[in-house]
Structures are given as structure tokens and as C-alpha cells.
Amino acid sequence: MDAQALIVLLLIGAAAGCLSGFIGIGGGLLIVPALMYFMGMSQMAAQGTSLALMLPPIGALAVMNYWNAGELDYRAASVMVVAFVIGGYFGSKVALSLDPLKVRLAFGLVMLFVAIRMIIQTTKSLWDA
Predict the structure, then answer these.
(1) Residue 13: which residues within 8 A CB-CB, separation 6 or more?
(2) One domain, residues 54 and 105
(3) Which of 1, 14, 27, 115 is the least crowded, having the fewest Cβ atoms under 10 Å away?
(4) Does residue 1 sit in the same domain as residue 54?
(5) Residue 90 lies in a domain
(6) Separation of first and last alpha carbons in the chain
(7) Residue 2 in contact with residue 10, Cβ under 8 Å?
(8) What Cα–Cα distance (Å) separates residue 85 from each residue in 14, 45, 53, 81?
(9) Selected residue with higher pLDDT from 62 and 14
(10) What stretches of 1-129 show up as alpha helix (H) in DSSP?
(11) Mean of the pLDDT values across residues 35-48?
């Protein structure tokens, strides 16, 4: 790995970590597109790499901060982690069985849907306030 690639990866990781700690996003929303466009990875390689980097440090320090502030529902997290692990296993199997372009399209459509919905809801809230 050359110095330029190392710097790009460090920047992607730092941005994803900041966004994850700040608003709870970073993985798929930032890391996957960044790895594809800045590092030239395929959709599948970017998804796999994103999942691998999040596994150990998925926010140990961020979780600690939320726990210390009393803003962590560990019961809900415990239930969801079981479903998340099972869903992740089967979701990755499905993704790997599909044409990568179809997976990229699905990823983009999900991001677009979430963005449009968030913009509409926020705009409504601002006008109602």
C-alpha cells in the first residue's frame, strides 16, 4: 500500500468515525461509496471492507460516551445485535449472489429514499415550528 492510499484510507476512516460518533452513521453511507470512488474497489469489496473495519471497533469509545451520558438502551441493543448478526449473514449471502451493479443500484436507491424522506420530514418540522 502506497502513502497516498494510506492517507485516503485514514481520511475515510476518520470521517466515518466522526460521523458515526456524531449522528450514528458512517459504515455503508460513507465508507462504501468512498472506497468505491477513491480507492477503486468494487461494490462487494467495499461492503466487505466496511463490515470488517466496523466489527472490532464499532464504536467502543462512542458507546462508552453514550453509556456515561445515560443514553444507551443496552437491552434493545442486545436484542438487535442477535438479529443484526443473523441479518448480516443472510444479507451478505444474497448480495454476493447478485450482479454487483444491481447491488449498487439498490444501495443508491436506499440512500436516495432515506435522504428524500429525511429532507421532507425535516422541512415539515421546520415549517411547523
Answers:
(1) 31, 53
(2) no
(3) 1
(4) yes
(5) no
(6) 51
(7) no
(8) 25, 19, 15, 6
(9) 14
(10) 3-23, 32-39, 43-54, 60-68, 74-97, 100-128
(11) 85
For the chain, how many structural domains are there in total? 2
The domain of 15 spans 1-58
pLDDT band at 53 (very low <50, low <70, confident <90, very high): confident
Residue 85 in any domain: the answer is no
The rounded mean pLDDT for the chain is 81
In eight-state DSSP terms, residue 58 is: S
Do residues 47 and 95 touch, judged by C-beta distance below 8 A?
yes
| C-alpha cell of residue 85 | 448478526
Cell of 54: 466496523
| 129 within a domain of the structure (yes/no) | yes
The one-letter amino acid code at 13 reads G
Share of the chain above pLDDT 70, in %: 88
Residue 127 lies in a domain: yes
User: Alpha carbon of 126 to those of 93, 118, 122: distances in Å?
Assistant: 41, 12, 6
